[in-house]
């Protein structure tokens, strides 16, 4: 991929920092996070980027990103495989500092939306509902 930077005239505009022991520090230095996966479960890296206050753009995989991103509020979802639309969306967000700031500010709410207390309560409710589900299905 690195050879493409020169080929596409992006030398000095794109960097490939490699492996880091401080990923959250690197995320906080970033302006935008893009998840270009075609398939996801529950992408923790997307939540981590949002927790760092980054505006995010992601393909709206069958599961995962659409559960996390509130489209247009704290990130932008692009239809799966719509590479041209992803490029247009990237350009739009990169050119609009106000949009990046708004999305990033709202993205940081992820820490409350998926807090350990809320998620633990959801698991507890699930476990408590199992006996009822078993009775209903017997």
Structural overview:
With 138 residues, the chain is mainly alpha-helical. It has one domain (2-136): Glycogen Phosphorylase B (Rossmann fold), CATH 3.40.50.2000. Helix content is 53%, strand content 7%. The protein has 8 helices and 3 strands, in the order ααβαβαβαααα. It has helices spanning 2-7, 23-28, 44-51, 65-68, 83-95, 97-107, 110-113, 116-136, and strands at 33-35, 56-59, 76-78. It has a 3-stranded parallel β-sheet, sandwiched between helices. Strand 2 (56-59), helix 4 and strand 3 form a beta-alpha-beta unit. The longest helix has 21 residues, at 116-136. The N and C termini lie far apart (56 Å).
Structure summarized in a few sentences:
This protein is mainly α and 138 residues long.
Write the layout of secondary structure elements.
Elements: H1 2-7, H2 23-28, E1 33-35, H3 44-51, E2 56-59, H4 65-68, E3 76-78, H5 83-95, H6 97-107, H7 110-113, H8 116-136
Parallel strand pairs: 1-2, 2-3
The share of residues in helices is: 40-55%
Number of beta strands:
3
Which CATH architecture would you pick?
3-Layer(aba) Sandwich
Rg over CA atoms: 18 Å
Order of helices and strands: HHEHEHEHHHH
Q: Say which CATH homologous superfamily is assigned.
A: Glycogen Phosphorylase B
CATH class: Alpha Beta
Query: In CATH terms, what is the fold-level topology?
Result: Rossmann fold
């Amino acid at each position: 991929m690195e050879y493409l930077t020169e080929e596409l005239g992006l030398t000095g505009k794109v960097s490939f920092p490699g492996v880091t022991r401080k990923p959250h520090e690197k995320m906080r230095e970033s302006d935008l996070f893009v998840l270009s996966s075609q398939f996801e479960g529950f992408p923790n890296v997307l939540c981590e980027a949002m927790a760092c206050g980054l505006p995010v753009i992601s393909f709206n995989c069958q599961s995962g990103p659409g559960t996390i991103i509130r489209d247009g509020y704290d990130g932008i979802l692009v239809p799966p495989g719509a590479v041209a639309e992803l490029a247009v969306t990237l350009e739009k967000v990169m050119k609009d500092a106000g949009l990046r700031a708004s999305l990033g500010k709202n993205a940081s709410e992820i820490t409350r939306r998926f807090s350990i207390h809320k998620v633990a309560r959801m698991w507890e409710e699930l476990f408590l509902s199992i006996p009822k589900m078993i009775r209903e299905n017997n």
